[in-house]
Amino acid sequence: MESVRKIGSAEIYDVAAAWVARGDGDPLSAAERQDLQDWLAADSRHRGAFMRAQAIYFHTERARDLGAGFAAGAGAEVVPLPRVSRRRLIWGATGAVAAAGLGFAAVKTFEDQAAKFATKRGEIRTVELPDGSAMMLNTASSASVRYGRRAREIELFEGEALFTVAKDIDRLFRVISGETVVVARGTKFSVRNLKSEPTTVVVEEGVVDVTQTAGSEIRSTKLMANMRAISYSAGAGGALVTAALEPAVLESEVAWRRGMLAFRGTTLADAVRQFDRYGDSKIVIADPAIGKLPISGLFSAYKPREFIETVALSLNLQIDVERPSDRVIVRRAL
After folding, report:
1. Which CATH number covers residue 277?
2. Do the Cβ atoms of 312 and 318 come closer than 8 Å?
3. What is the pLDDT of residues 34-45, one digit of tens each?
4. CA–CA separation, 236 vs 210, rounded Å?
5. In sequence order, what are the residues at sequence separation of 6 or more whose Cβ sits closer than 8 angstroms to the Cβ of residue 131?
6. Are residues 217 and 287 in the same domain?
7. Is 13 strand, coil or helix?
8. pLDDT 10s digits, 250-305
9. pLDDT in tens, 133-179
10. Residue 207: is its pLDDT beyond 70?
């Protein structure tokens, strides 16, 4: 931050801080988003100042507003930061970081109050939240939960989760998944965050706002019930693609809650990877061309052998079982 001040950019940072503080309220309008994009593109220093302001504001606001955060069963008490203007809050924290590196250390205590939840491979777990909301974690998933006076915040580190949100007009319900943020007040939606895929948001009830900060642009959209948004990372183009879902497609998106995997034109290789999220399927595809074959159907996530036997029969493939490893080798039929 010192480097910004030395080149006379305090005014630039003040504008950046104002944009960050404005963006924490209701979603920016189309005109406001365009104004922000124009400002970011006008000077290379603008984007750096904006990113610094975002980082500082995210941590200090969370420390202040989520001061009453909980740790599961711990009942820890946290003293909230004093109320100050948003821009002063960002500037003050920035000064601390620049002077002694204390800004983030000062809020570490608040961050430590987050309740963390995780599931093992093959496990599906429902977590009851303090306000009556619920979070269902799919296999191999992890998330943290913070609750405060003005916000309810979930960070989904990996995996998939369904959120059934209790209505609270005074507190937003925010889910952070990498570069994607979903905001709701009372609704039912799921978020999938897998390393090999773009982030996916599916809304079953109500309305949510989805914002993506990948790359050089900020993208935002509103999702209604029976809609899906796919959020591509900056490396994959940074797009935010939405679509209305037919009942059959929606059913395939939510099948995991019943311990099922639904495929609709999915490649065999991708299907096997999904089974491997629930356990070691021991399925080996000998020919890459076989892995590209499309399959459809509904299968138990915990019965990979039954799955591959059904697929082999329908696609005229051969399967051989190796002993003693029990690996199932899939080949073209002789």
Report:
1. 3.55.50.30
2. yes
3. 888 788 778 766
4. 18
5. 147, 152, 166, 168, 171
6. no
7. helix
8. 988 989 998 999 999 999 999 999 999 999 999 999 999 999 999 999 999 999 99
9. 999 999 999 999 998 888 899 999 999 999 999 988 888 999 999 88
10. yes
Instruction: Provide the number of structural domains found in the chain.
Output: 3
Distance separating alpha carbons of residues 213 and 327, to the nearest angstrom: 42
Beta strands in the chain (DSSP E): 115-118, 125-128, 134-137, 142-147, 151-164, 172-177, 180-184, 188-193, 199-205, 208-212, 219-223, 227-231, 240-244, 260-267, 283-285, 294-300, 317-321, 328-332
Domain boundary among 79, 113, 147: 113
pTM of the full structure: 0.66
**Of 224, 246, 268, which residue constitutes the final position of a domain?**
246
Residue 253 lies in a domain: no
**Which pair of structure tokens corresponds to residue 195?**
């390393």
**Residues 50 and 6 both lie in one domain:** yes
The maximal CA–CA distance of the chain, rounded, in angstroms, is: 75
pLDDT at 271: 96
Q: What is the CATH number of the domain that holds 132?
A: 2.60.120.1440
Same domain, 183 and 225: yes
Rounded to whole angstroms, what are the CA distances from 163 to 144, 169, 249, 332?
13, 17, 19, 42
What SS3 class is residue 161?
A: strand
The reply to whether 7 and 57 lie within a common domain is yes
Same domain, 319 and 273: yes
229 plus 126 within the same structural domain = yes
Same domain, 51 and 108: yes
Q: What is the pLDDT of residue 120?
A: 94
Q: Are residues 120 and 219 in the same domain?
A: yes
Lowest mean pLDDT among 86-95, 112-121, 189-198, 249-258: 86-95
Mean per-residue pLDDT of the chain:
78
d(CA 266, CA 290): 12
- pLDDT-derived band at 236 (thresholds 50, 70, 90) equals low
Residue range(s) defining the domain that contains residue 139: 114-246
